[in-house]
Specification:
- The complex is a heterodimer.
- Chain A has helices at 18-31, 35-55, 94-98, 108-115; strands at 3-10, 63-69, 73-80, 118-124, 127-135.
- By secondary structure, chain A is of the alpha+beta class.
- In chain A, strands 1-2-3-5-4 form a five-stranded antiparallel β-sheet, covered by helices on one side.
- In chain A, strand 2 (63-69) and strand 3 (73-80) form a beta hairpin.
- The two termini of chain A are 27 Å apart.
- Chain B is of the alpha/beta class.
- Chain B has a single domain, classed as STAS domain (Transcription Regulator spoIIAA, 2-Layer Sandwich).
- Chain B is 40% helix and 23% strand.
- Chain B contains three helices and six strands, in the order ββαββαβαβ.
- Chain B has helices at residues 15-27, 45-60, 72-81; strands at 2-6, 9-10, 32-37, 42-43, 64-68, 88-89.
- In chain B, the strands form two sheets. A four-stranded parallel β-sheet of chain B has the order 1-3-5-6.
- Chain B is globular and about 30 Å long.
- The chains are: A alpha+beta, B alpha/beta.
- Chain A binds chain B through residues 14-15, 34-36, 39-40, 43, 46-47, 50, 92, 94-95, 97-100, 103-108, 110-111, 114, and chain B through 9, 11-13, 42, 44-46, 48-50, 52-53, 55-56, 59, 71-73, 77, 80-83, 85-86, 96-97.
Amino acid sequence: MMSLGDRFEVRPVIGLEQKAVDRAADRARSLGFTGAQVDDICTAVREACLNAAEHGTTVNDTYEVTIWYDSTTLSVEVWSRRVAIHPGAAPPHLETKIDGNENPRGWGIFLMQRLADSCTFETRNGGTVVRLTFQQHRSS
Amino acid sequence: MGLITLSGYIASNAEAAILKAYDTVTQQGAKEIRFHCASGIVLTSSGIAVLISTVAKARKRSQRIVASGLSAHYKKIFSMIGLSEYVVINDDTADKH
C-alpha cells in the first residue's frame, strides 16, 4: 500500500513544473534513491508536467500532481483535464528528424518511457493521467 | 571554432537565441560548433529539439558539432535518443554523484 506524499495543482506555465520536480526529487532522496536515479526522476517528471501544460490544459486551467511512495517505490501522477497524450504515436526517429522529414520535437513521451521503470497513460474524467513509477535501485 | 554556451533552462523558447548564435558563428566561418553546457543546465525535450534543428543545419554545411560540459545524466540522454552519433561528446565533466 503506497502512502500519499503530496498532491497539488500547477498552472500551465513553463518553469512552474519545478515545484513538482523538486517535490519528487526530495521524496526520492528521502527514500534513498541514488543521485543518478533522482536525475532520471527529475527529467521524467518535468516532461510529464510540460506535456500536461502544453497539451492537457488551457491557459486558465491547472494540472494536478500527486506523489505516492512506499519504502522502495516512488510514483508520480500528472493529471490534466484534457487529452494530453497519444501513446499510440510512432516513436521518434532521430535520423528522420535530422534529415528534416519529421518535426524535431516529440521526445517527451520517449524520455518518460525510458527513464521511468513504468510509464502508463489512462483516461480519467475526460483528461489524461500519466503515471511514472520508479523503483529504488540499490547503489553498488 | 564557434562557441555557444547554454545555461539555465533550455526549452523551445531558447530556439531563436540558439539559432541566432549558430548563424553568427557560421557567418564567422566556424567549421566546428561547440555547445558548452554550463553547470546546472536543464535541457527539456523541446530544448533537445532545438539542438536537433541546429545539428541538422550544421550537417548540411559539413560542420562538426561538439558538446562539452554535459553531466552524466545528459550524456545518457544524448545516447538514448541517438544524438551522440551526430555530436562529439567531450568527456570533460566531473559528475558529483
